[in-house]
Amino acid sequence: MKQIGITTTVPIEVLIAAGYQPVDLNNIFVTDENYDEYIDMAERDGFPKSVCAWIKGLYGVCLLHGIKEIVGVVEGDCSNTRALVEVLGLRGIKVHSFSYPSSHSRDDVKKEIGKFMETFGVSMDQVENVRQELNGIRKKAMEIDRLTYEENKASGFENHLYQICMSDCNGSPEDFDKELSEAMKEINGREPLEKTIRLGYIGVPPMTADIYEFVEGFNARFVYNEVQREFTFPRHEAANDIFEQYYDYTYPYDNDYRIGELEKQIEMRQLDAIIHYTQAFCHRAIEDIYLKSRLDIPVLNIEGDRKNELDARTKLRLEAFLDMILDVKESRNESIGN
């Protein structure tokens, strides 16, 4: 099976139907012990230091892992991806473009996915057959999510990991399906985690994955990972076809659409506060202004750059924020008790 790199979640049903093995370049980059080599390579080849580490990492992964073909999302994700894929084309990599239309109209989404299907020469029936198979796997990832926020048995990191891997099913849907089944069985056998503060994580998945362990060192835990959850297409059962499924995907579209789902999850999961992660030099950092003005919940914005672990300053900010949330929650509980 031919490998094809993806720069973020795309309709992998189309790629699998066409006989490809999708590989999420982000997951290779961020999990490599020598992840900084990819960044260094990109900078040696001319990428400026004022470009986010993810873009440089994707470039390095493509070259050092011999990726010959990729799909780059040029609308609805990173504003620098268009330039990235042009440079990768210069390096001899075959590039396909995909867009999540900013109009967010059903017709435009259908048109984009239709063009994607034409590019890879697959029929609607082929794509829908794959979609139904993947939706069975998605249900298992969603069950791990439920075990996180409802039964309090899965950790925030496990929630992050198993949902983010739905972007490419770890390169093998069959093997990933088995992995999820084993994880569900093991998690189900645990005692619930006892933590007072219930946190939501919003924004792009972190380079600093140690944030989950750090937070759980206090009286807090993450019970919601926004974008990672969207990678599972948690509302897929309501979608009649692949067009509706990708129309309902919140991440690439406008913030008003995104906030509607955030508000539902804040209430359902009984969140006390939110950590909003943004990446240095990314346009999405500006969204923090809008999100804080619209969400009726405390929000702390933290920023990552090229390090894959939290720095001392960010740890101090997180600790102070969690102390404040705990004080407020305990004071509120005392008032209710009196």
Explain what you see.
By secondary structure, this protein is an alpha/beta fold. It has 2 domains: 2-120, Rossmann fold; 124-337, Rossmann fold, CATH 3.40.50. Helices cover 52% and strands 14% of the residues. It contains 15 helices and 8 strands. It has helices at residues 12-17, 25-31, 35-44, 53-64, 81-90, 106-120, 124-149, 156-164, 173-188, 211-216, 226-230, 242-247, 255-268, 287-294, 312-337; strands spanning 2-6, 20-24, 69-75, 94-99, 197-203, 220-225, 273-279, 299-304. The strands form 2 sheets. It has a 4-stranded parallel β-sheet with strand order 2-1-3-4. β7 (273-279), α14 (287-294) and β8 (299-304) form a beta-alpha-beta unit. α7 runs parallel beside α9. It is globular. The termini are far apart. 44% of the residues are buried. The model has no long low-confidence stretch (mean pLDDT 92). This is Benzoyl-CoA reductase/2-hydroxyglutaryl-CoA dehydratase subunit, BcrC/BadD/HgdB. InterPro entries: FldB/FldC_alpha/beta. Its cofactor is [4Fe-4S] cluster. It comes from Dethiosulfatibacter aminovorans DSM 17477.
